[in-house]
Amino acid sequence: MSRNTFIKLVSGLYLVLFILTNHAYAVRIKDIANITGVRQNQLIGYGLVVGLDGTGDDGKKSMFTRQSMASMLEKMGITLRAGDIDVDNVAAVMVTANLPPFAKAGSRIDVTVSSIGDADSLQGGILLFTPLKAADGQIYAVAQGPVSIGGFSAGGSGGKVQKNFPTVGRVISGALIEREILSDFAQKKSFFLALHDPDFTTASRVANTINSALNNHIAHTSNSGTIKINVPDEYTGNIVELITLVEGLGVTPDTSSKIVLNERTGTVVMGENVRISTIAIAHGNLSIEVKEQPDVSQPLPFSKGQTVVTPATDISVTEEKNALFLVKSGVSIGKLVRALNAVGVSPRDLITIFQAIKAAGALQAKLEII
User: Fold this and answer.
1) N or C: which end of the chain has fewer CB within 10 A?
2) What digits encode the pLDDT tens for the residues 107-141?
3) Is pLDDT above 70 for 56?
C-alpha cells in the first residue's frame, strides 16, 4: 500500500467518525457556504416565436416584430418591405437562460421565453434559432424549439378566461451549449469558501472543523465571510474529492441575537440567543365606546306644539386591568414567551412591547422591522 493511499484511508476513517459524532446537531458546510468562482452565468438573446394562432403581436404597434421578420427573411434570400408582412402569428420575445458551471459543449439547458410585444399568448409557438450571449458579448448557446406555457388563455368580446401567464413560457432542453467557459479548477492549489451569512464565529468553526477532520492545518480565515483552503499534496489534481469531504462536514453556525417584526402581518420571530435585562412589563388596552340615541318629544294632537328631538349620549369606558409582571435579567427566550403568553398578549401587542423594551435599553438583541 502506497503512502498516499494509506493517508487517504486514515483520513477517510477519521472523517467518518468525525461526521457521526457531529451529525446530531450540526449542518453541512455545503448548506451554509459556497465555493467562490463556482457559479452560473446568465445568458440572454432576442428571438421570434412563430406558429401562433392569431395571438401574436399587432404589427401596427410592435413595429420591431415586422422589422425582425423582414430582416430574417432577407437573410434567407426573400426581400420584402416590413409593412407588407402580417405578424399576427409571430411574437417577439426575449430568451434567457443560466449557463451552469463547468458546462460542456453539446450539453443542453432550459430557456425561458418572454414576450416583449403585445402578443396575447405564446401557446403552440415555436422558438426560432436564437443565439444567447453572456455579459462579455460572446455567444455561448443557441436556443430553438417548441414553447410550453403551462396554461391557456381564451375569451371573446364579453369575457376572458386565463390560467397562469400565457405570454411567458419555457423550452425544455431548448438551448445547445456551443462554447465552454475555460477553467483550471482541478489544478488549483487552493480555493475559497464564502459563507452565505458572514460571521466571525461561524468562519472560525468551519476552519477548525476542516482542520480537525482532515488532521491537517489547511483551512485559514482572513475575514468573517471567507475561508481559504490549501489543497494537500495527496489531493493535488483530485480537488473534487477534497471538496466532497469538506462539504459533508457538520458545523454549528453561530447567529446574532435578533428579533424580526412584521407590522403588516403581525408576525414576530425571535432567535434563541435573545436576552433581556431585569424589567417590569404591564400592557393593557383602553376601550371607549360612545352611543347616541335620539329622544323624541312629540306634542299632543291639535296642540299646535312642536316636535323636539333631544340627543341622548351614553359613554362607557373599559380598561383592561393587567398586572405588572417581572422579567429577570438574562431570561431565555422560552421563559419570555411563556410569560407573555400568560398575560394573553397578541402578536401585534408583542410588537409594541418589544419596541418599548428596546427603547428602555433592556433588550440585548437587534430589533428589525420589515
Assistant:
1) N
2) 999 999 999 988 888 988 999 999 999 999 999 99
3) yes
DSSP 11: H
- Read off the C-alpha cell for 303: 296642540
**Widest Cα–Cα separation across the chain:** 127
Chain centroid to Cα 82, Å, comes to 43
**Phi and psi torsions of 335, nearest 5°:** -70, -35
In eight-state DSSP terms, residue 117 is S
Q: Is the pLDDT of residue 185 over 90?
A: no
- Looking at residue 236, what DSSP letter applies? T
Domain boundary assignment for the chain? 3-35+184-251, 41-177, 258-288+317-369
Is 5 within 8 Å of 241 (Cβ atoms)?
no
Q: What integer pLDDT is reported at residue 314 of this predicted model?
A: 64
Q: What CA–CA distances, in Å, run from 47 to 94, 143, 316? A: 6, 9, 70
Cβ-count burial 267-295 (b if 16+ within 10 Å, e if not): ebebeeebebeebebebeeeeeeeeeeee
Cell of residue 270, nine digits:
425571535
* φ, ψ at 336 (rounded to 5°): -65, -45
pLDDT, position 312 = 66
Of 60-69, 73-82, 231-240, 269-278, minimum mean pLDDT range? 269-278
Residue 132 has φ and ψ, to the nearest 5°, of: -115, 125
